[in-house]
Input
Amino acid sequence: MDAAFTEEQHEIRRTLRELLLKRCGPDGVKAAVRTPPGYDQELWRELAGRLGLPGLALPTAYGGVGCGPTELALVCEETGRAVLPSPLIATAALAAPLILALGSARQREGLLPALATGELTGTLVVPGGQLATALALTGPNDGGWAGGGRAGGIQARPADDGWRLYGEAGQVLAGHTAEVLVVAAHTGGYARSRTLLFLVRAATAGGSGGPGGRRDGGPGVPGLLRTRQTALDETRAQARLELREVPAELLGEGDGAEAAVSAALAATGVVAAAALAAEAVGTADAALTRTVGYVKEREQFGRPIGSFQAVQHRLADLYVRLQAARSAAYYAAWSTGGNGPGGAGPDGAAEPGAAALALAQALETLRTVAAEAVQLHGGIGFTWEHEAQLYFKRAACDELLLGPVHRLRARAAEEAGLFAGGAVQAGAGGGPDRSGPAAVRAPEAVDV
Output
């Protein structure tokens, strides 16, 4: 097999890195997150219009570039390196793939070209902070994670002119600015209980409100209230959505099939996990690069602290971990695109567990590198104003949003069939249900 990148892929990486080096330094990031939308809208329009980042993995028939998960992962690695605040992940890795997979011809033609050019942004709305569960990253997504008739979820009921949604959801990526909301809601009551996806055309971005401020859904969306939440990682804007009889349309045609929705969410989770893993690798690489530069300049006892063997050993260990995480992220993206050896089956599915495992390794590596960066920067690294905190906050919040790491690994092991006899199974909360202190049980339970 040939795992080398093509010249086109190298060019995508080089062009984006040069642009972000000029336009997205640490001071620019801190200024952008304090604007009402939480990101630099002018830079986003340039990234979308000039480079076509939102439509990178969309077919050319819908205005996309026609690339695949590998190119999207390379782009996310560069945006992660700059800790870029943007709606890229929410739009390109969550909303657009679901519309492409499940949407009717009218919905795809009406939304995907605008999403591909950045004219519209989108996101996936999952109640209860169950994003990782909905995407089948930490457990099967065939349970009642969308509410199941309980409080705290989102309920959908048919109406004369479509559907009505009622409920709330928190930790929605870019939820306060996205114009297209793909909402996971429970419907059917007890007789036909199922989870389906619905489209809500929200207001345009850049309206009133700001960090912690409220804004309604606009005149066309009565009953929608969106609040930008205060988060430790300001570069990953999140919002709380309250829906009170909000008009919506079913994503797709007919009455909807829960099995198709679960399969589409799982497939989207594989692509999103590969992209997020690459993004975490880029962030860890930037943190390590800045730390290496700092220890070469910072002097102690009359010599740079980077000359001390103990510091060199710590940095060498971080470098090895980073390269391993990068390899795993690249392989996950490559496998997701149907190129892995045996990784893509007849239906084009990625190698089981590869994306979740890569995400787990990348998140763990980012956490370790960010913590060491703070330590090796000394007292200045502990101040909120220093750029080392950008990496530390991203590491902490990504694992809270997408992890924890041990559940990602347990799910990957389950998908890959490493354990026989149900040694790793999903519990009601979406995580692994262990009968012992570890996921690995007796040796006889392992398939060799």
Summary: The chain has three domains: 7-88, 122-256, 260-421.
